[in-house]
């Protein structure tokens, strides 16, 4: 299909299936929601024990034609084999990418429903506002927000962005669940810092003005990247103004394309359909590399990334599968965090260019192709510094090994080798 450049995307206000309300006036806040896919695709794991649906999902994964080549660095996480996007190089190039870096101290803001701040796989990677004293009811750092130690809650207007839905917790885990800790799952970037910014309520719904305010907060408090796994039918001035504000501060914003299976050329979603260069819209793929049935596509979907049946962190310390472009976007955000850890000297534009130029070209109806973390990193890492996979040593036959041993023994005794005639 012909894909138009982002700058040429028209901006009509059309309703999506998930927003069955009249289109808001452009000057007024408009509805936004987290497009996290179909509830039928979810399977929760409680207290470490999979439900019947979860067990069925696991069995399906084991029957998948996707060959497993686990990176050595992932062996400490007990549920990593259930994370198909992070198996070997085929889904998104992660095995080769992790040989270069598993991430560093890069701050990523998750603007969503909040996060489970006590989850064992997330707590070690939470961003901490060092200028704020927890729980004293005072705006110690003078940034206008009281007790914003790990982020801020723009729904309740307080410093506790705890998740009441689970969507944000799942997204945060895809980006930066602590890898190699012997617990649960691994995120794409093992050591990235998660700034938790709650802009959606317990139903995973919100408004453009709240999201815009949350984005500005993330920019002002040092986020290098912002993940927006949310979408709405109306591109309001305040929301686009927040995207421009992030662009002016060299902050990349990764956004979900939407989950109605529609062409964004005819049915745009926002922020994905805005034209700012710092916005990276993401469609969702299946474990076989095709476009997920739920995923929107077309102009505004810059990349496609794994988004169907993705296992990640859940509220109350658990784990669950979810499906949608909400799950695809954080795989891209995590990859950007890896890139920034490998090359902290590069700005947002350079990282975005490397990410998009490193995409796998194919037939997916997106603007640049499918996410490839390894190729994106290869574009910014000097060839001499690239860590290739260890060469495989061919196993010697028993007869060959015996002959080599005899030859070494003769050489040690100072005798010339005998030859067969």
Order of helices and strands: EEEHHEEHEEHEHEEEEEHHEHH
Low-confidence parts: 1-26, 38-75, 417-421
Overall 3D form = globular
Distance between the termini: 69 Å
Strand content: 5-15%
The total count of strands amounts to: 14
Q: Biggest sheet, open or closed, and with what strands and sense?
A: 8 strands, parallel
Widest sheet, order of strands? 5-6-4-8-9-10-11-14
Number of helices: 9
Radius of gyration: 24 Å
Helix content: 10-25%
Structural class: alpha/beta
Overall mean confidence score, pLDDT: 84
Could you please describe the fold and organization of this structure?
The chain has 421 residues and is an alpha/beta fold. Helices cover 25% and strands 14% of the residues. The protein has helices at residues 52-63, 94-100, 167-176, 208-220, 237-248, 325-342, 348-357, 373-378, 398-413, and strands spanning 31-33, 43-46, 49-50, 107-112, 151-153, 193-198, 205-207, 225-228, 252-256, 279-285, 303-306, 310-313, 319-322, 369-370. The strands form three sheets. Strands 5-6-4-8-9-10-11-14 form an eight-stranded parallel sheet, with helices on both faces. The chain has a four-stranded antiparallel sheet with strand order 3-2-13-12. A two-stranded antiparallel sheet has the order 1-7. Strand 5 (151-153), helix 3 (167-176) and strand 6 form a beta-alpha-beta unit. It is globular.
């Amino acid at each position: 299909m012909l894909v138009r450049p982002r700058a040429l995307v028209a901006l009509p206000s059309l309703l999506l299936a998930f927003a069955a309300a009249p289109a808001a006036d452009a000057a007024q806040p408009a509805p936004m929601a987290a497009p996290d896919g179909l509830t039928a695709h979810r399977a929760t794991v409680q207290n470490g024990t999979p439900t019947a649906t979860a067990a069925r999902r696991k069995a399906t994964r084991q029957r998948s034609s996707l060959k497993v080549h686990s990176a050595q660095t992932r062996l400490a996480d007990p549920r990593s084999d259930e994370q198909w996007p992070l198996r070997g190089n085929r889904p998104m190039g992660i095995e080769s990418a992790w040989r270069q870096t598993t991430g560093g101290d890069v701050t990523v803001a998750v603007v969503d429903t909040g996060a489970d701040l006590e989850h064992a796989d997330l707590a070690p990677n939470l961003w901490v506002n060092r200028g704020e004293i927890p729980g004293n009811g005072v705006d110690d750092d003078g940034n206008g927000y009281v007790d914003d130690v790990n982020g801020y809650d723009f729904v309740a207007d307080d410093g506790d962005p705890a998740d009441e839905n689970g969507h944000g917790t799942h997204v945060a885990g895809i980006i930066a669940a602590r890898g190699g800790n012997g617990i649960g799952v691994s995120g794409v970037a093992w050591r990235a810092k998660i700034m938790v910014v709650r802009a959606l309520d317990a139903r995973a719904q919100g408004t453009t003005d709240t999201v815009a305010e949350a984005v500005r907060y993330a920019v002002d408090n040092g986020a290098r990247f912002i993940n927006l796994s949310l979408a709405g039918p109306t591109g309001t001035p305040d929301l686009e103004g927040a995207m421009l504000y992030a662009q002016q501060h060299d902050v990349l914003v990764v956004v979900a394309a939407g989950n109605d299976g529609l062409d964004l050329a005819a049915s745009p979603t926002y922020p994905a359909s805005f034209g700012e260069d710092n916005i990276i819209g993401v469609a969702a793929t299946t474990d076989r590399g095709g476009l997920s049935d739920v995923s929107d596509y077309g102009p505004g979907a810059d990349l496609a990334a794994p988004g169907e049946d993705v296992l990640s962190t859940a509220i109350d310390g658990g784990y669950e599968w979810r499906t949608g472009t909400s799950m695809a976007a954080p795989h891209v955000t995590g990859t950007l965090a890896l890139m920034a850890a490998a090359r902290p000297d590069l700005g947002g534009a350079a990282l975005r260019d490397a990410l998009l130029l490193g995409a796998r070209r194919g037939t997916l109806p997106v603007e640049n192709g499918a996410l490839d973390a390894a190729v994106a990193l290869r574009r910014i890492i000097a060839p001499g510094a690239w860590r290739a996979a260890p060469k495989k040593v061919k196993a010697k036959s028993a007869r060959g090994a015996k002959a080599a041993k005899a030859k070494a023994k003769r050489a040690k005794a100072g005798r010339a080798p005998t030859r067969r005639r």
